């Protein structure tokens, strides 16, 4: 009776994909909770497009495209923060100016490299089943590094996010903390892009955290629930794609979306009872 559960585990690529989705779900839970609490979903969306010039430039230089994407994400994050500080624009306006400029640069570079079109499809739709052992180690390192950093600075980030005046009064570097959060969002988007592509990466970052917020009463609970929802959605989606023969990344995102809707409906019923 359990063959349907154990049969896919006979394949190394499936086990690696499952492990990668588990690690990424934990990472997205930690960072995504901050994104949802701060209302920064648009930043994640912008980052998923702003990495394009880094990907293309790295390809042209014969380098690692994920490192190129990570560099573009960091530059975009810092650019958003600097533009907002120096122009007086609201964060959403500064974000979209940088996002549009970076994405346009990527298109210009792409127009000069017609042979890159087939390679680009990997970053548009992603491929969890193509994860290597090296990718797993990199993702595990990111989980430990990013998770440890955010947990260690949790009190400072909370104060800087929701009472920046008080934070400045006691000497906290509010702008630096803001830059750090934007950079971490960008780096997480890059990692998730390798699994589900740029078009779906924001969903993994946001959906689990948004579902967790429906039930959580603290930031810690929110991160825990988001991780549980993400791991469950990743496993169910991966198994579903295996047996249905569908795109793994898109199937995972679809399962997470359905899970969010079901959790939302369940909360509504609990509220009425």
UniProtKB/TrEMBL annotation:
Superkingdom as given in the UniProt entry: Bacteria
Pfam families xrefs: ABC-3
Entry keyword Transmembrane: yes
UniProt subcellular location: Cell membrane; Membrane
Residue ranges of the TM segments: 13-37, 49-74, 94-113, 134-153, 180-210, 222-242, 248-266
Protein topology in the membrane: Multi-pass membrane protein
Location (main, coarse): membrane
Keyword entries, A-Z: Membrane, Transmembrane, Transmembrane helix, Transport
Entry's family note: Belongs to the ABC-3 integral membrane protein family.
Name listed for the protein in its UniProt record: Manganese ABC transporter permease
Species name: Deinococcus piscis
Lineage: Bacteria, Thermotogati, Deinococcota, Deinococci, Deinococcales
């Amino acid at each position: 009776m359990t063959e349907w559960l154990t049969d896919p585990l006979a394949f190394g690529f499936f086990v690696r994909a499952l492990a990668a989705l588990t690690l990424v779900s934990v990472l997205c839970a930690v960072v995504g909770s901050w994104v949802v609490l701060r209302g920064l979903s648009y930043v994640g969306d912008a980052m998923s497009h702003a990495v394009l010039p880094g990907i293309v430039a790295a390809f042209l230089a014969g380098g690692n495209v994920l490192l190129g994407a990570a560099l573009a994400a960091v530059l975009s994050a810092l650019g958003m923060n600097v533009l907002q500080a120096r122009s007086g624009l609201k964060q959403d306006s500064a974000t979209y100016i940088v996002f549009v400029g970076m994405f346009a640069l990527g298109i210009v570079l792409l127009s000069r490299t017609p042979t890159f079109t087939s390679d680009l499809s990997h970053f548009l739709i992603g491929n969890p089943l193509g994860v290597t052992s090296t990718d797993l180690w990199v993702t595990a390192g990111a989980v430990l590094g990013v998770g440890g950093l955010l947990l260690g600075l949790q009190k400072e980030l909370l104060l800087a996010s929701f009472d920046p005046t008080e934070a400045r009064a006691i000497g906290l570097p509010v702008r630096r903390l803001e830059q750090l959060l934007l950079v971490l969002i960008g780096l997480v988007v890059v990692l998730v892009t390798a699994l589900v592509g740029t078009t779906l990466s924001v969903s993994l970052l946001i959906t689990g955290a948004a579902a967790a917020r429906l039930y959580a009463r603290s930031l810690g609970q929110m991160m825990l629930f988001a991780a549980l929802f993400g791991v469950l959605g990743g496993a169910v989606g991966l198994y579903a794609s295996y047996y249905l023969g569908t795109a793994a990344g898109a199937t995972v995102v679809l399962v997470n979306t359905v899970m969010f809707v079901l959790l939302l409906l369940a909360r509504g019923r609990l509220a009425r009872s």
